[in-house]
User: Fold this.
Amino acid sequence: YEFFNELYHRFLLTPKVNMKSLCLQALAIVYGRCHEEIGPFGDTRYIVGMLERCTDRLERDRLILFLNKLILSKKNVKDLMDSNGIKILVDLLTLAHLHTSRATVPLQSNVIEAAPDMKRESEKEWYFGNADKERSGPYSFMEMQEFWTQGVLTPKTRCWAQGMDGWRPLQAIPQLKWCLVASGQAVLNETDLATLILNMLITVCGYFPSRDQDNAIIRPLPRVKRLLSDNVCLPHIIQLLLTFDPILVEKVAILLYHIMQDNPQLPRFYLTGVFFFIMMYTGSNVLPIARFLKYTHVKQAFKSEESKGQDLVQRSILGHILPEAMVCYLENYDPDKFSEIFLGEFDTPEAIWSNEMRRLMIEKIAAHLADFTPRLQSNTRALYQYCPIPVINYPQLENELFCNIYYLKHFCDTLQFPDWPIKDPVKLLKDALDAWKKEVEKKPPTMSIDDAYEVLNLPKGLVQHDESKIRKAYFRLAQKYHPDKNPEGRDMFEKVNKAYEFLCTKSVKIMDGPDPENIILILKTQSILFNRHKEELQPFKYAGYPMLIRTITMETSDDQLFSKISLLPAATELAFHTVNCSALNAEELRRENGIEILQEAFSRCVAVLTNSSKPDDVCVQVCGHICKCYSVAAQFEECREKITEMPNIIRDLCRMLYYGKNIPRVAALAVECVSSFAVDYWLQTHLFQAGILWYLLCYPFNYDFTLEESGIQKSEDTNQQEVANSLAKLSLLALSRLGGYLSEEQATPENPAIRKSLASMLTPYVSRKLAVSSPPEILKMLNSNTESPYLIWNNGTRAELLEFLESQQECMTRRGECDKSYGSEFVFSGHAKELIVGEIFVRVYNEQPTFQLELPKAFAASLLDYIGSQAQYLHTLMAITQTGKVESEQHRDRLRRVEMALEALRNVIKHNPGSETECIGHFKLLFSLLRVHGAGKVQQLALEVVNIVTSNQECVINIAESMVLSNLLALLHSLPASRQLVLETLHALTSNTKIIKEAMAKGALIYLLDMFCNSSHPQVRSQTAELFAKMTADKLVGPKVRITLMKFLPGVFMDAMRDSPEAAVHIFEGTHENPELIWNENSREKVSTTVREMMLEHFKQQAENPDVNWKLPDEFTVVYNEAQGELSVGGVFLRIFIAQPAWVLRKPREFLVALLEKFTDLLEKNNPHGETLETVTTAVVCLMSAQPQLSDQVPPLGHLPKIIQGMNHKNNAIPKCTIRVLHALSDNEFCVRAMASLETIGPLMTGMKKRMDMIGLACEALNRMFQKEQTELVAQALKADLVPYLLKLLEGHGLENLESPAATKAQIVKALKSMTRSLQFGEQVNEILSRSSVWSAFKDQKHDLFISDSTTAGYLTGPGVAGYLTAGTTSTVMPSVPPPVDHEVGDLG
Assistant:
């Protein structure tokens, strides 16, 4: 602080300028660093006074630099203001205009700039008074400098220039003082000085904000801002902008922004010319400028509030200078964004701006300011006289229309700007409607060029005045009549303005009234809005219908419609978009008669369509838009009713489709329209009757499925085929909707008439597909060659249909007539020859039988109906042919068709399980076809059908109920080729008892026997044998079948058929003599002949009467001669059995039972046939020996008591037989036990006594018995005195007559020894034996040598093998001659 005071003291004392300056420099440094410690400076006013008085540049600069530091203290600022410091500083600011050696900024090349060497003559601004008080001037500043040099001027000379409030001494005028009077070398050049002062002023303003802490405006305005706003200061600060120095311009912009905050003077701010000056700036540091402009541009009172209106451009002072979009940008975006646009190159819907436009703007403003800028270099305090600038017209915006915040031409250019964001769609729509209204109401200009010249006092006539002349005239009059100077001159001022503006804009396009181009842009803008902002605009009813409908009406009735710029395409497109946006609009359009108006436009445009019409033609565009409009309108019932009342719409639609081949995109719109109309039954019908099908059916044939399936990226914009494909799909959809084929959201009323026509022209199959398949599938089918059961489709059918459609189109378009059936009677020539049943091509189905059918059951039912319709004809035809009449080609064809139908029926049942049930109820028909003799193929196919259905149990039951078997049986004789199939069928049918019963009644057995006996085909015979086996196996009817068969064939055949059908045939063909069968040539011949005769007789009767039954006479039997006289028991010939005991019997147990039965029967007779008895006995013995295990079965049968009883029989032959049988049974433990429980030993002894020749056998039997059972039987023996009896025999009593007594004795000894082994009675037996004298001689002797082999041993030749031809020593003789040959065609008898 002290140092500062010392310095200041030193400053005050020194008279030398340099010393003073040095002190000031030091003071500035100290105060700058320590101003807070030093505090406010008391002599600020003195320093300001020194600044005002000093004449030395160095001292001036040092004083200002010191002041710059002093204002760091707010108290000093007040002193600065109190001592008039602000005005002194502003006066110094103006010197910046004199700085000519400033560096040039590298500006954008196309912005105006002056070359450094462009030295122009300074303006003559100055006047001075000489000694005699005479006024001299005006002189230029350079001349004044010369006068000073010459001594003409002195510091006291009074001078004046524009901008001064009176004459002043030369030394009191800053510009002259510092350029002429002042001495010393300046520290700062003029620009740096101005920059320093501006920074000081900005700092001072910063101390005094315009708002308090609560953001309330401070009134009165802070003093510094009042001082700076004053006319003495403000213009000079603003005019610094004309130095174009980047730093100065930036600082001025910042300072002005501060000054203008909440400044009451703000509305009149424009009068200083600030907006012209600031917009002329060519540099790029425009952010402070943008900030300043944003704050001030709409707050200027350059027009009355009423005349400004709501429009932003009208309210902005920049409205005449900048394009509308830039004004909107300034208002709507922050300064940074505006600066970016202002410096850049933009060409968008929201901004069209470029350096070229900026250059033009600067040029126009410069021209408007005329010579004011050079004047400042002569007189730095010259004041600008404000004069409004006419609107600057930019060539780049010549064809643009600005609305809301968008250039509509760019906005509507959807290729370049496809989805430009719309900030407020509702506001834009309102503005567009206002713009439309204004455009429509636009009047031709009221002023002519001559009128304008007259107002500006310029000579009229042929001479065209250049702009500078016009401008000068305008300035002169504008200044004269400016309301600020001349309150009475307002009207004249406005007239002058109008004239000037008219002349400045005369180069711009001036229309005599509304501009159609602009109206088109407005219409298109609305279309884009409705298209992109449906949801936002939906709640609003469209207010523009009256204008829109008036536009469409006027355009439609205009004779020049197709030779001028037409509004119709844009207007009709807008009509579509409005209706598409909201149901309210659709109703509104209808109420405003819009549908009728659109129809008139439609008719007018459709009428001029030709084959050479292009998509860009007005008529084509209009048609497309109106179609879209109707498509949407058709969603609303009241609109539909209106459309229904207007048949011309449909007629025009058809015409449009007729010419649509070359304009597919528009044709697609017409097709969509047809699709939309299809929601109403009456509209469907009107379309149908107008011949819509002729047109729609053509388009699907332009489809290329290879493109669809290629997987290549494609677009309708670039690929014509994709357009054709899309049109084909739409046409198919339209056809589907017209016929009512679709469901859910695409559902439409079903239309039988249209369906019938489509079924004829597209085939029933394809037309059905419309309901279920996707369009690409159907289109591929239509454009491919197909031969399937459902569809025969090829180049020929396509060409035939297209030819028909084109001929109908021509007739309809030229004469308004067409096929009365609308195609429902159309038949493809290729299909006419085909048999079509149930919509299926039978021939093709038979070629592709495995084809997967959609409804196989329905097809089977249709085939049965068809066959049924032809059956009577067939029977008649066959009856006629048999009488010998000639068959015609037609008959052959009908027969062939029935054969095809039957074949198809066979195939459908074969390949579609479950469909056979359709035959239920039709078996009488099918079986009747088996009787169509002469039509072998029909019979064969009918048989195949029957054969396949037999796999179904329900069908078999139904066949059984139908009682139709006789027809099938007859085939066995009448259709030899099919015998195997008939047998197969019968085999399946005979699972049903009722059918076997019917078969019996209808003679199945005789037919089958004939097959078995007489057929030459081994397989047929095997099958027959198999069938017999199945029939005999039936629980109910089987026995009856067997009995009947047994009348013709031995029982062994039945068993053989059951076990092995082939073996049965083999047996039949062989010659056999074995225990079970005696069969030879004679027996075979006899059976075969009998069977054949009976079969032929029955066949004959059946041919005459199908219902005739077959029955064997009761007494009938076939006698097999070869078996006569043979003793047969249980189906076994005993004689042969005894000869071949090892023969493997088929039913040994049954044989055993029968044989024992027969044996006991003989035992009970008094005098049985001796040979028979002997044979039966031997057979029993052989059976027991050959099959010992069978003996186990004897006791349960209960025959043993009877056999034992037989010992006591009076007839001597019987005991012998019983002993043989007992001997055979004694080898079996079960039998021995049974005997033990009976009284056996006693009767046996009786028998032995009766037949002494059997003693040996009896003793062997006893030996065996005692070995197996030692208690009961030994007890019986003791009781019956068997031991003494046997000992007696040993002695030789009674053995005299035997052939080998020694062997017998040996057997007796063995029997006795076995008795001694009894645990219980052995002792007793031994006791008796010990008493015998004979026994001792025999007891130790071995008797084996005496015992010969048993007679039974010879039978046991080893185990046999089951079989009919393999066991035993059969004497089968194979025939040496071939069997008789079957006739291929059976004898019809």
User: Anything to note?
Assistant: The radius of gyration is 69 Å.
